[in-house]
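Help needed: design a sequence for this.
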């Protein structure tokens, strides 16, 4: 995925990912309530997302549709984070995460299950 979203654009996408297709007006109402943004701010961000190819617009009522999934964005951002911070090493990432805090036996078992499912 080549689309890079800023935090503010991701908030717009979050509304669509949670609720499905919505008119821009409704997205603006949600973000005014959640973030205190004015309508113009939300419309500007929606238009940026459209330009980036993350949202499509249809009529009537400036209806917005997410063209990318949350999972695709999470994967791309996780890959970018691992590359940037840990030189692409998943092992270094896990060492950093697991070395920070003592895990319970239940958490260790859950991690073993996740790794086992990947094998």
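Sure. Designed sequence:
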């Amino acid at each position: 995925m080549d689309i890079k979203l800023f935090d503010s654009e991701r908030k717009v996408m979050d509304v669509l990912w949670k609720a499905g297709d919505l008119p821009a007006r409704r997205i603006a109402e949600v973000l005014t309530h959640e973030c205190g943004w004015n309508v113009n701010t939300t419309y500007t961000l929606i238009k940026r997302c459209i330009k980036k190819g993350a949202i499509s617009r249809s009529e009537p009522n400036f209806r917005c549709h997410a063209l990318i999934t949350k999972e695709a964005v999470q994967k791309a951002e996780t890959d970018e984070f691992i590359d940037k911070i840990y030189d692409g090493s998943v092992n270094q990432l896990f060492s950093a995460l697991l070395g920070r805090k003592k895990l319970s036996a239940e958490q260790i078992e859950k991690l073993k299950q996740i790794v086992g499912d990947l094998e």
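The first strand starts at residue 22 and ends at 23.
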